[in-house]
Amino acid sequence: MNDAGLNRVDAWAEVGRARKHESAELHVRGQATYTDDIAELAGTLHAALGLSARAHARVKGIDLAPVRASRGVVAVLTARDIPGLNDCGPIVHDDPILADGLVQYVGQPIFIVVADSHDNARRAARLAVVDYDDLPAILTPQAARAAASYVLPPMRLARGDAAQAFARAPHVVKGELHVGGQEQFYLEGQVAYAIPGEDRGMHVYCSTQHPSEMQHVVAHALGLHSHHVTVECRRMGGGFGGKESQSALWAAAASIAAVRTGRPVKLRADRDDDMLVTGKRHCFHYEYEVGYDDEGRILAAKVDMVSRAGYSADLSGPVATRAVCHFDNAYYLSDVEIRAACGKTNTQSNTAFRGFGGPQGAIAIEYVIDEIARKLGRDALDVRRLNLYGKTERNVTPFGQEIVDNVLPELLAELEADSDYRARRAAILEYNRASPVLRKGLALTPLKFGIAFNVTHLNQAGALVHVYVDGSILVNHGGTEMGQGINTKVMQVVAHELGVELARVRATATNTSKVANTSATAASTGADLNGKAAQDAARKIRARLADFAAAQYGGLASEVRFAAGTVFVAGLTLPFGELVAKAYLARVQLWSDGFYATPGLHWDAKTMTGRPFSYFAYGAAVSEVVVDTLTGEWKLLRVDALYDAGRSLNPSIDIGQVEGAFIQGMGWLTTEELWWNPAGKLMTHAPSTYKIPAVSDCPEDLRVRLFDNANVEDSIHRSKAVGEPPLLLPFSVFFAIRDAISSVGDHKINPPLSAPATSEEILKAVEFVEAARG
Ligand code: MTE
Ligand code: HPA
Ligand code: MOS
Asked: Taking every annotated instance into account, which residue ranges of this chain make up the domain Aldehyde oxidase/xanthine dehydrogenase a/b hammerhead (predicted)?
């Protein structure tokens, strides 16, 4: 081959390329199969859940006769009909599948109706007559704290000597903040389809981020071993954390009904039921106290946070831990004390949601810095920069992990310049001077996010790669596809390793009978972990093929090259498929497993110190808003975001993730308001009352760029995770709104602003500033 040809081969790569999502065309054509689209077997029945109408009560009696008599009903099942354990809790076993004598929130499932159709099951589920004996209910995290009602013991992380540092601090700011929860609002709701098989076997199709956990929960509920149960998920129409643990209820209920009736049973939640039954992002209440110097440097910080865990533990412990480990966000806090508690309330059991407590931890310090800047009359960007972690000093987190690749100073400088931050700040001051009603605001906020499950043993993954005799390749891995593009990335990794075009590789449904003991696809680690596992499998196959090629054609196995669908061996070239066919005839194993466990992680839960994260991802965004100070309405005018995806595996997918997370996080902080009535019923349980962002809420001018920065850790092709961290970027929207509000008082008054900053909340804040201004 000539030099040009060799260069082409050297430059060949399948990773790092913008490739469309492997299901993009199926998605837009409506041909992608979701769980509810799977062709139903003859005899399939449909289930619905009967829900508690009370927040906290003893159930004295239930009359299920009207349910049984309803049209099409085949069976009605209560806790007593569960063959095995009545539990679907992921960590602490305090989560009954069906309430047994005690209901703990409005919406808690009490019984399962199985009928001949979805509608008949739903209609019947409403006909039960339940006799309740009401008990006192706790509905808010503050009330939980006042009653010392917790699902887990409170946690504390301290470094330095906060008390002494406060004594030395020239200024102290003290206050409270409330940040609301958020419904995951996956477009495809919770759904499971359970098919009983021979000899106690059970196959469950389930929309879940965690097939292995579904397998365990179903096996326990049915009194079976894991090997009896297979759980399969080709894709989800979104999970966002809401299907990390909480798909278990649906998988278990469908399986119980399938065992009891001996027929396939599908359980698909209606949207209102889905929202009433399942947990959401935890709301947090904070009390903070921060000491700082004349320039705005933080000298001492104390925060006490309490979350609304709901009635059971679910993932509230790890969520609170992540909140504690992200209170620092991008800033060095020398003397700090962080407390967190998970308030036990008579509401849905809150769970994972994109960011998993990280956003809730970090927003508190951003709120405080915003206050400090206003008190000192400085631009908040300058105060943020002053407090940033250092590169070689002031670079250890409160939990003791050294930050070795802090790129925030460069990243912020780049974004500040590209977004024209200073000139726009001046223009906005000018604009506001002449505009009494419409006020503009601007904010730049940074993010740092730790990547790894904060439960060390979860950081492992497996994969299975098959090369067929025709040279086509099938990859299966433990991760689940929820729209984030994990399959595309893993396929790219495998194609890259074997030197073939992406079209030759196909990914199959996640299935517990293929890769065992998988972790949830969560903590943004899906591509990191499963990409490495698939790479390991592909490398084993490539090594066998290289050995075979060298033996066949001469030269060293280590010099055999695979690129662009071609194998280069001893000066010869041959198509990949041809080598594969020859290797098969020579009885070479053409498939392999692969495994990966993230190295270097450790965590001491008692002291809350260690190295919980493999690395940190960084980013920042600038948002500009205009607020109508008479109505509280506002509009996002422009966003500039810069995100460090390391050496991106797929820039177009990563940019899509940043955009999606930004808009989703903006919804959390602005329009999405969960509201429970005084009796504890969630009243915002449908899109009619719960406002997620629409296309019209997206800024016309949205500029997302990736910051080029190879990961210092040996991650998959030096990429960085992208799934969750960008959810922190729309902090800039929240603080731009606060900036616009504060312009009403010449930026001298700190408007108290809770999240979500709904129009109502914005108006209240404007009125506060007007009253304080006099
Ligand atoms: N993107 C889409 N389209 N749909 C989703 O449900 N979930 C997010 C994020 N991006 C989600 C998504 C969450 S909560 C996580 S943890 C990651 O994707 C999980 O995928 P990954 O680890 O493969 O990035
Ligand atoms: N993210 C998501 N799920 C988890 C985590 C996490 O950090 N830790 C344990 N489960
Ligand atoms: Mo994501 S909240 O870790 O599923």
From this structure: 29-136
d(CA 584, CA 550): 15
Residue 729 contacts residue 621 (beta carbons within 8 Å): yes
Q: Which residue's CA is the nearest one to ligand 1's atom 7? A: 240
Of 597, 626, 660, at which residue does a domain stop?
A: 597
Could you say which of 232, 416, 624, 724 is catalytic?
724
> Is 477 found in the same domain as 580?
yes
- Residues 306-347 pLDDT 10s: 999 999 999 999 999 999 999 999 999 999 999 999 999 999
Clarify whether residues 593 and 729 are in a common domain: no
Q: What is the pTM of this model?
A: 0.98
Q: Is 209 in the pocket of ligand 3 (CB under 6 A)?
A: yes
Query: What 3-state class would DSSP assign to 420?
Result: coil
Domain that holds residue 572: 460-597
Residue nearest to ligand 1 atom 1, measured at CA: 484
Instruction: Name the one residue in this structure whose structure tokens are 């005799």.
Output: 469
In ligand 3, which atom is closest to the CA atom of 724? 1
The preferred substitution site among 210, 453, 518, 521 for testing ligand 2, maximizing ligand atoms within 8 Å of CB, is 453
Q: Is residue 675 part of a domain?
A: yes
DSSP percent split of the chain into helix, strand, coil, nearest 5: 35, 25, 40
* HEC string for 193-238: EEEECHHHCEEEEECCCCHHHHHHHHHHHHCCCHHHEEEEECCCCC
501 noted as active-site residue: no
What tokens were used for 763? 């108006």
Taking the chain, what is the end-to-end CA distance rounded to the nearest angstrom?
81
Selection from 111, 127, 112, 106 nearest residue 52 by Cα: 106
Could you report the per-residue pLDDT of 484-509, keeping only the tens digit for each? 999 999 999 999 999 999 999 999 99
